Amino acid sequence: xxxxxxxxxxxxxxxxxxxxxKVTLKxxxxxxxxxxxxxxxxxxxxxxxxxxxxxxxxxxxxxxxISSNGMSVHIGKDRLVENTLPIDLVNLIIEKARxxxxxxxxxxxxxxxxxxxxxxxxxxxxxxxxKPDDVVIxxxxxxKEAIDRDIEWKVTxxxxxxxxxxxxxxxxxxxxxxxxxxxxxxxxxxxxxxISSEHNVEVMVANVNKASGIQYLLDRFGVHKSEVLAIGDSxxxxxxxxxVGHSVAMKNASDRVKQVVDEVTEYTCDxxxxxxxxxxxxxxxxxNEKGSQ
Length: 293
Hints:
Layout: E1 7-10, H1 25-36, E2 40-44, H2 49-55, E3 64-67, E4 72-75, E5 78-82, H3 87-100, E6 103-108, E7 114-116, H4 120-126, H5 137-150, E8 152-154, E9 162-168, H6 172-186, E10 192-194, E11 200-204, H7 210-221, E12 228-232, H8 238-243, E13 246-249, H9 255-258, E14 263-264, H10 273-281
Parallel strand pairs: 1-2, 1-12, 2-3, 7-8, 12-13, 13-14
Antiparallel strand pairs: 3-4, 4-5, 6-9, 9-11, 10-11
Helix pairs in contact: 1-10, 3-6
């Protein structure tokens, strides 16, 4: 079956990023080809906008970026949507994370992610030593890089505008206990949680997710959701999959993700799965090129 969407939304981790957190040249070429055929391509990721800018290669051009699971929406450098967490919620969650010694990163709407310096000892212990077998290498490397380079360690928070929290644990028991703690906090202050692996959880503004960001861009583009294709691999892609006309999971996605989509790619993110899928499935309109089954 050859597809003719008007917009393609792509997740990053485990989708256009391989497990070394890289976008290959083949993937860049595939996205460029899709866009040249008249189909818009946008990113929909749990990563912050600053992370997206840092990771995506400069020659990769897209028509929009939904970051922090819908908390922020950009076209080019222009921010169209900015959601922020209540500062009392931010302070409460940091207090609880310190009490439970849970690894956390909080992301301002501008600038690098932040962790309070007094929490650095237990943060470093969480990623010390060898990688646990059931933690994916991309997430482990990202946490190592965060500790060594990406986190700005502060004595106090000097902003009241934060887009999301990211939490991680090397053990499933600890992160699951933290998810239970977050559910208790929800009873007093409402917010949304999302996961992209069995070792993390993120916190965003209530009722904000990838689907809400996608709908905003679709309204701006004048495109109906039935004319949209989305590719992802994780639980935080569920709202996106539910919204769009055609949903696709990566071969490397979990079985529970594969069960809710229309299709699964033939190749993994480490095998240029997006490149192969777009080349086979999108009906290119330039010249005589056509996607083939």
